[in-house]
Amino acid sequence: MKKVLTLGALLFTAGVSFATNGDNLIGVSPASRGMGGIGVGMPVGPTDSIFRNPAWMSYYKGFNLSFGGILFMPTVKAKSNVTPLGPWNPPAEATSQAKFFVVPEVGIVHQINDRLTFGIGAFGVSGMGTDYRNKDPQFSNMHTTFQFMRVIPALAYKVNDAVAIAAGVDLAYGSLDMGAKMCDQSKPPNCWNAGGGQSQTYGIGFQLGLAYNMGDFLFAGITYQSPISMTYKRVFDSNNDGRFEDFKLTQPQELAFGVGIKPMQNLKVGMDVRWINWKNADGYKHFQWKDQWVIAIGGEYRPIPKLALRAGYNYGKSPIRGGAKDSSNFKNNIPNFDSPFSDFNIAYFNLVGFPAITEHHITLGLGYEFTKTFSVDLAYKHAFNKKVRATGANGLVVEGQNAQDAITVGLNWKF
């Protein structure tokens, strides 16, 4: 399993900064991403079904192969007046040097018989990070990356013409780097490079799906993804003892449901609602992430049979919150770290190192069938700029901003 996941991870560009719903992508295929990330409540394509709701694999006949990628173009900024000796005003401002990233996806869906359909896909599904090296010292030389991908074999069973059920195994690969300069409270302060470099690990989880299709007119679906526990070895030195500590970071469980309607042969519209349980996932909960309710709405219209025009909207409130933070009480114990963090320390790491704060997304897409066996899908996503600001004692302030553009391309074959 490790060889397969590592091979896939070679395609996963370092230095990522593409968080959208928390650190999760809104969708993996251009068909889904062009419609706001829907795919739980109605079928939007064989590849996305593997990831979003594997029960919809039963909707597709024959053998389907898709591969493609996402080009991310984030604009991430930070503001800080934090120094080891206290606030230094005016606050420094900087733009992260992480500019362009590529995220791959590949999937195969094969109808075994009238009842069974098998699918397997490899997807970069989560990630974030920044690069403030050689910027103002008030950004602590912060350079972070988090990458998470899933290889998912799944099997769908068609109970009858209306109902299908499915299960999949999530074979996960993760990579984490938490590079930063840390300082203690002594005078003069003692500072050290806390990052232990890139740490890689593996995990396993599962997903379940249910799909309902009433006469190819009304659709509904529900899915569950289990948490995936990951421990990143020797990733951070929190207390300058020369020993790099481990960090336990669990990708959270998710529950999603959706509905869709196809009132005409050339028109379909759907809506999904997803619950992402950040506040109970190790690591995320210690960094004070809140749960998200994500709403995705999208549709597709075909003016001619070969051409699909798509549009959508996606919203999820930022799991990272700002406001007044306690900067003097170091009470937050991070899993496997020797030194605790204050609330303001946590806000600083979130907003400078891992600003997964975007909320509103609009999407556009199109697909064209060149032949009966080959088609191309394209999608564009814009995440509107979101700013979160935290304050501490004596005028301490830290702020993160995140806006994104992304282009997705997919090539599809069916036989």
TrEMBL record:
It comes from the Bacteria. Belongs to the OmpP1/FadL family. GO terms for cellular component: cell outer membrane. It is found in: Cell outer membrane. The keyword Plastid does not apply. Residues 1-19 form the signal peptide. InterPro entries: OMPP1/FadL/TodX. It is a multi-pass membrane protein. The lineage of its organism: Bacteria, Pseudomonadati, Aquificota, Aquificia, Aquificales. SUPFAM superfamilies: Porins (SSF56935). Transmembrane segments: none annotated. GO terms for molecular function: long-chain fatty acid transporting porin activity. Keywords: Cell outer membrane, Membrane, Signal, Transmembrane, Transmembrane beta strand. This is Membrane protein involved in aromatic hydrocarbon degradation.
